[in-house]
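Figure S4 source data
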Amino acid sequence: MDAVTNHGAFRHDIQGLRAIAVFLVVAYHAGFGFSGGFVGVDVFFVVSGFVITRMLSTELNDHGRVNFRRFYLRRIRRLLPALCAMLTGVLVLSMVFTPLASQGVTARTGIAAALINANTYLAHFAGSGGYFGLGSEANALLHTWSLSVEEQFYVVFPFLFAAAWAVSRRKKTSRRTTANHPINMAILIAVAIVSFVASWLLTSGRVNPSGRGIDIAFYYAPFRAWEFAIGAIIALFSTRMATISRTAATSLSLVGIGLLTISAFIYDDNTLFPGVTAVVPVIATALLITGGGSTVTNIITRILGVKPLRFIGDISYSWYLWHWPFIVFAAGLWSNSSLAKVVAAGLSLIPAWASYRFIESPIRARKDAPPRRTLALGAICVALPVLASFALIGTHRLLNNLSLFAPFALHSDVQRGCSTPTPMGMRTGLDCRWETPNPRGVAVLVGDSNAGQFTEGFVLAANSIELDADIATQSSCPFVDLRLQTWSKENTTCAYFVAKTMAHLISIKPEVVVIASANDGYIKQPYFSFRSPDGKISYVTSEEKAQAIEDGLAHVIRILRGAKIRVVIVHTIPKFEKWEPIAMAPIRIIGPSHWMTATIAKSTALGARQTAFGAEKRAADESGAATLDFFNELCPTDHCSTRANGIWIYRDYGHISVEKSRQLSATFAQALSGK
């Protein structure tokens, strides 16, 4: 949308502000120095509210009505062709460049984006984790959520504004009613307050429908409406902006750029957002728009209006469209390269410029396009991405049938539903026991997904020595007597799982219990922390968490040993950070195996697990448990590798493959038999 205007003048500073906004978003997505760069989206929302309200106000003041047909036809020509080109192109390219595991969600997001509803789809149907989730970065169309929010705003706001105008005309106190009538202003302020309060309630968790309150606040247009409304309110004051003195305008602009800089550098993925924290970038944008509205320019306005920033502002819509798919493609090809994302973000300027030059500008320049032709163009712009989405879904199914991911299959505990928060002894309808004829007892494997990765080898070993095998795992839940917290939020299912499973184990008295957990990850990763079982003590630092795990594991072992149950602790295995085959592009998977293989020095792998290994060893020694270490089997040379002797050793960065699990059965059998 054009950067309309004070008294008909084109506002170059608005284009510069758009340039700052898109640069923040692109830099954040590329991992280039702005941990809070996502606030650039909020800048766009405020600017859009300002620009569209100025446009509607001018039309109402000049003609006394809103020409809805002309407004929506302009929006179709302005937004849909460039969006259609990006969606169609990205969906086609995704057949080879988007990670196979995310092709389905990318295709469905494409359909939703074409129907201006990507935000709703992503809020409810794209899996857990939302925008900042661990898997969200593999969706090449994730960024379209904000475009859908803006488009929904364009659909609704003109009617709201026209309705407010009609009310103000009925209540008019003078011969002429203008767009900035107090009633118009009061309605916008009321919308802003209601929307903001609702956003705050959802983000803070005070209202949390289906446990997705923060996702709803983040994605849904009604809970972002206050940001547009702030821009709209400023627009109604635009005539007064012109009279602001140079000193006042400079002060407002300096404070605005300062607040925006602070939020871009201080905020990060852990910031509770939107809600109250979104106020800072929104107010910053409002101050910059206000300061730039004076007839007397100031230093910030002049900087924002320089030619390079105006150019980026001109192509900001197209750059936003293309930057994220390029970053996702780069990550799929070079998953361990941070530089690849930065380079990809820069290269995305090429299709962005091309889109602006050959699609946006020519179509926008046609002021006299017949309505039927515009509507036909809009229909084509919806149909093409939808067709491309179905083509991607078909390609995804074809690639799956080629069994590209067979070496990286999920382990049997997951496939049988045995990896669940439901504790052992309370599970119904699950086939989590692998039986052998005439068993002399049962062996049980418990822990998190790092226990589940041993399922096949454990089952073969147990059955080979005439033991039935039971599996009870819960992902991201260490089998220790502690209360786990993730991002400072307690995982209540974990402590419950451990306590109830322990009670069941004591009641059935198995021959042996094998415990395995990714304790190195819980110690190393800052988003994990622990509390003591009574909740009185917190363990946050790596040293505190290591000691807590040692004590919590020792307590579990002592209870089991007190019930005359043998216990085996499996030490953590070598890890390959950021190595995720399911996040790799199909073209990379189809290629030579060395394109995918990752290696790490054995000394590095040993050092990475040293703290966890020590805690596990001391807990076992103190409490009478045996230990089992597969490190040398997984890393027999000076370098550990994800592939060796013609098979994949690992299925992802921290879990071995099904085939390798089977190969560990002989070692497991010795440990289970107590030899």
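Figure S5 source data
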Amino acid sequence: MRLAPAAITLGPLRGTEMTNEAKLPRRRPKDAHYWCTLGVVTALLCLPVLSVTYVPLVDYPNHLARIHILYQYAEVPAYQATYYRVLEPIPNLAMDFVVPLMLPFIDILAAGRIFLVLTILLFITGCHQLGKAIHGRPTWLVLPCVFFFYNSMLLYGFVNYMVGIALYCITVALRLELRGRWSGRRLLTLTLLSLLAFFAHLSAYAFLGVTFVVVTAWDYLTGKEELYRAALSLAPLLIPCVCFVVFMKGSGTLGHLERNTIRGKLLGMLALILSYNYTVDLLLVISLLGIFIVLFTRTRGVQVDWAVFTSGAIFTILYLLSPKVLFGSFAADVRFILPAALLLTFSLKVSILAQTKVVLLSLFLLVASVRVAFIWRTWVTLDERIAVHVEGLKQLPFDARVYPMFVLQGNRQEQKIERSLNHVVNYATIYRHAFVPTLFTYEGQQPLLLRARSRYIGADQWQTEQWVQLSDQWIPLLANYDYVWGHSVDGRLEELLRIKCTKIGESGTFSLWQVNRQAPSN
């Protein structure tokens, strides 16, 4: 079969070179199809969150527990004695700010789910606005992009990051729409959006800085804006920049830098695809490759918005160059993948027969929906396991001190599912005001800090060659705790626990142990 080469147009999508199709009235018959399809997809993306009680995102229970402490801080003396609140412009506050606003009216589990649904809606809005700003009207490219929401970062519980990405898309969309039409009110609106993105998550502000600079430079170099007006377009970044300087002079720090491995970088490129099952992930990759090959062979021409494309390409390069750990955050490099994918996708306008477009889009929606359905099913199963154990945690006395011992067993795929249970113990903080030493209270990342950090030896530190040394250090630590919460604890660890503890509860892979104040005589 002979392949016709695709014609690439150099220039923005919104210009005089656009076809007559772009000049048609905004309300066309197919607009209804677009909105109906987007509505169905939106409902599908919300269903996994709405169908469970305990959303099994890895870090999610930990965030809920911290928010619970902040909300009830003034009423619980034990919280005041253990923690102190921090008033700083910390760029990681989306969930900490929004969820407490709902707590006077609903419980924290419902508030958390509403927050996640709002995040989904905000992300879909951001994708729609960004696609519209680049293409001049709603584009069907939005539909594949909104499925990026269920990525590895979300499954790990990086919810503030996802809010930041949504605000990034909305802010960049407005920046593109206001090209060359600056006024005080428009600059103020962009400033407020940039400030919201900064407080949602630091990465969102970094992405805005790169994109604003690239678009501004492109507009100036192509003669679309004079130097003064081009420089004016960067003004919305100034106030968030001041907040960042204040933050860095306070508790902000780069932290230790940790490079990623080549294998880690390759896996990171699949962050938008990986779920809980490698077989499903592989089938998705094969399906997407097939759709892409057909799209490539059927493409008649391509138009490129080079300013947007350049920003996406820079994010891709930054992903390759960035360390894995930065500002104390894990997977710092992988966070460039989502904005890079969004910008690179939206920067292209592919000319293709309408019938072929419908078939390929339908196939993608089918494959992506199957992936979401699989994640949904996994969540329902995990929710049932979590619910049983949380009922056990609710029986603990108030203000108990609980030591978590979380062990991962099985192959990599099984561990990926089990990792979602890592912070289930934090529900004891929500329901019984329990102290758990693994609560996220890191300086420069959360607005809640420990007055005195307790020493903690995680189960992942127990290595054969260090066993005797660690056990000698660990047993005295239990004198500071009332209970030990275990996951998949067996073998030598269980024998070690029995020296100082008595098992008082067990449900599936979870176990609960009471610390004996005096070791048994035999």
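The chain has two domains: 7-16+29-50+86-352, 400-515. Residues 400-515 form one domain.
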